[in-house]
Specification:
- By secondary structure, the protein is mainly β.
- The protein has 6 domains: 170 residues, no CATH class; 91 residues, Immunoglobulin-like (Sandwich); 87 residues, Immunoglobulins (Immunoglobulin-like, Sandwich), CATH 2.60.40.10; 86 residues, Immunoglobulin-like (Sandwich), CATH 2.60.40; 86 residues, Immunoglobulins (Immunoglobulin-like, Sandwich); 82 residues, Sandwich (Immunoglobulin-like).
- It is 7% helix and 43% strand.
- Helix 1 packs across helix 4, helix 2 packs across helix 3 and helix 3 packs antiparallel against helix 4.
Length: 678
């Protein structure tokens, strides 16, 4: 095979996919496949120019061992897996693999072919591959072929199998493009995996079929497992035991939807069995799906059509229809069905009608009906007429709606709901509103509201503190019920309460004691907040719902700490006042037996190293605040409770840093220590 002179003909059944690639970021994307004894890698660059460049200069794979057992290595162990950069095999090496693997032939032609032509014979594959330039075509075709054949990707230097991995270790792989030209930069790709990540492949899910006249459409959910499978084989059996694959190449989801579909021609009245198997981008087949079975059957070609429906004096209705007599011998029976809407569902009202009959009696018609006639064949699928509307005379209004309730929110939106009426011919509801007690309620809507809920908007900044609502029900003949019971709603408060005033604050042995004077509004609760003047950290420490209490003892205050307190009042409508004027106090020192010892900071080659010891029991949280130069203290890092040192590797040289270590126990009591380093 002379690849320099061969024009690659990609037939539509070989390559049924459209491929596009973004051009924004030049990078390497890496995919991994973990087996029980090795780790497989696949990668792809994001642009045709990067593809050309990496094929020319190669790829280097670096592996870093980061974990062994349950521990993290202090110094990762580096191994260069490819001392010689990976590149595509030379042209002469492709002869044998290209003869047995069509996708390898595609890659070889993409890499080395002098003339690269994409054609589809009688079918224009250019409609599928929307790439006009030759290099883009080579890039897109080769990436698709590598996705379909992992051996071909290995041969092209776009994949690797690491067989030197060990259980209990975790690795960081770096795919590094060789770049002798400093003006060319391609971002390195990476993956973090280990053998312990191995999981067996899942079975394809949700396999089903639609059986027709001499054909079947098999479908399954490919979206659920798209992270595992890029293509599928479908298999068919006529005895449920011996299966054969229906295509030589795997199927790909061309529609980018949730499901894949396959149409197959079959004989009617014969059972067929189908199953599918997924294929990964590493040419690995997963387990078989469940097997489904069914039969094709002939369809009835004649359709019934309702001509008329005539009520008699007793309230019964005679329904007449047309159906071609040539179809009588194919029928088992007719069936008259009804529904509340023309969309269905339709339920049977007269069954077992003989094939030669063309009328049926509807004994107890409802006020409004949609009728259909179903022709049920001896074999195959039934045919159904178009819906026919039958309306009976009706002067009875619906029942008066009940269960009306609602509320008005703080923006003036009224939320109403009520118990839905059950009349089958119900059209909807009309909403009525009044502003003052005793006035006539005015309808808000010209058309019926379909749902049993409604939203209205009102002005809440006026003198009326209440608003009044009622509703009526209408049927499709516009018979209207009486008004429901009137619902009276209170408008919400919109003015926040006045802030309290802290009248007393003092430091006591048991904590900080507060007293305050509230405003005159009706309140729901008080919110007490506290600020640490050293760190600037502000927190809400208590919500008091006992409105008879206007004092509080803060037993969680840390000794020798300067605090500012404020109190917020909350109204019954959940409106909050402005915070009270703050009151400052220094909490008394407490003999807790907890302390931080020997907080030390030292500069190393890697940054500033902090070490400490402490006597805090039942530690809940360890936090470090940092101050750089003249900036204020701010939370820098939260540590694990057992840690006794931390490295600040972001610290700059010739810059002064201050650190504040805060340790809290399970009761929320903190201790702290501070250090400074130039």
């Amino acid at each position: 095979m002379n690849l320099h002179k061969t024009r690659l003909l990609l037939l539509l059944f070989v390559l049924p996919i459209a491929i596009t690639y973004g051009q924004d970021t030049i990078s390497v994307a890496v995919r991994t496949n973990i087996l029980t004894d090795k780790i497989q890698l696949r990668w792809a660059v994001s642009t045709p120019s990067a593809w050309y460049y990496t094929n020319k200069h190669g790829i280097t794979i670096e592996r870093y061992t980061l974990m062994r057992g349950d521990g993290t290595l202090d110094i990762p162990e580096k191994v260069v897996l490819t001392p010689t950069p990976l590149k595509p095999h030379p042209l002469d090496d492709w002869q044998q693999i290209a003869q047995s693997d069509n996708y390898a032939a595609i890659i070889a032609q993409s890499l080395y072919g002098d003339d690269f032509e994409v054609s589809g014979g009688k079918k224009d594959i250019g409609q599928i591959i929307a790439l006009s330039q030759e290099q883009e075509q080579r890039f897109a075709m080769s990436m698709f072929a590598a996705e379909m054949s992992f051996p071909a990707a290995l041969f092209a230097g776009w994949g690797y199998e690491d067989t030197t991995v060990k259980p209990g270790e975790r690795y960081l792989y770096r795919i590094v493009p060789v770049s002798p030209d400093e003006t060319k930069h391609i971002e390195t790709g990476s993956a973090y995996v280990g053998l312990d990540d191995y999981q067996p492949l899942p079975r394809p899910l949700d396999l089903s079929a639609m059986w027709g006249n001499g054909n079947v459409m098999v479908t399954w959910n490919s979206r659920l497992l798209e992270r595992y499978y890029s293509s599928y084989y479908i298999e068919r059996s006529e005895d449920g035991k011996k299966f054969r694959r229906l295509t030589d190449v795997p199927l790909i989801n061309m529609m980018d939807g949730d499901r894949m579909f396959y149409n197959d021609s079959i004989a009617n009245n014969k059972t067929y069995y189908y199953r599918v198997v997924g294929l990964t981008a590493f040419s690995q087949e997963g387990p078989l799906s469940d097997t489904i079975q069914g039969q094709g059957s002939p369809k009835l070609i004649y359709n019934p059509n309702i001509i008329k429906a005539m009520p008699d004096d007793e309230g019964k209705v005679e329904v007449s229809w047309f159906f071609d007599e040539h179809g009588n011998d194919l029928l088992q029976s007719f069936e008259l069905r009804r529904s509340d809407t023309d969309k269905g569902p339709f339920t049977p009202i007269v069954s077992g009608i003989k094939p030669n009959e063309r009328t049926a009696i509807y004994e107890k018609p409802l006020p409004e009906n949609y009728l259909v006639i179903a022709a049920i064949p001896k074999d195959g699928e039934e045919t159904v007429s178009f819906p026919f509307l039958l309306q009976m005379e009706d002067s009875i209004p619906p029942a008066i709606p009940v269960g009306l309730e609602g509320y008005v929110d703080t923006t003036g939106v009224v939320h109403l709901k009520w118990t839905a009426n059950t009349e089958p011919d119900l059209l909807g509801y009309r909403i009525y509103r009044g502003q003052t007690e005793g006035e006539e309620l005015i309808p808000l809507t010209d058309i019926a509201v379909k749902a049993n809920e409604y939203q209205d908007s009102i002005h809440i900044h006026n003198l009326n503190q209440k608003v009044y609502y009622a509703i009526t029900a209408l049927d499709r003949r516009y018979n209207q019920s009486e008004l429901s019971e009137t619902l009276i709603l209170d408008k919400p408060d919109v003015i926040p309460p006045s802030p309290p005033f802290i009248s007393k604050i003092e430091a006591r042995d048991e904590g900080v004691y507060l007293e305050w004077i509230p405003g005159k509004e009706q309140l729901r609760s008080y919110i007490i907040s506290r600020s640490d003047k050293t760190t600037g950290y502000r927190e809400m420490i208590m919500t008091i719902i006992n409105l008879d209490s206007t004092s509080y003892l803060d037993a969680s205050a840390v000794g020798n700490t300067n605090y500012e307190y404020d109190v917020v009042a909350v109204s019954n409508s959940f409106l909050e006042s402005a915070p009270s004027p703050t009151a400052a106090v220094k909490a008394k020192a407490k003999n807790t037996g907890m302390s931080i010892k020997s907080l030390k900071a030292s500069r190393t080659d890697k940054g500033i190293l902090l070490k400490w010891e402490h006597t805090v029991p039942d530690v809940k949280m360890v936090s470090i605040y940092r101050k750089e130069g003249g900036s204020p203290l701010s939370l820098w890092k939260t540590l694990e409770i057992w840690e006794r040192e931390v490295l600040d590797n972001t610290a700059k040289r010739n810059t002064t840093y201050e650190y504040l270590l805060v340790i809290k126990n399970q009761n929320g009591k903190p201790v702290n220590a501070q250090t400074k380093i130039n």
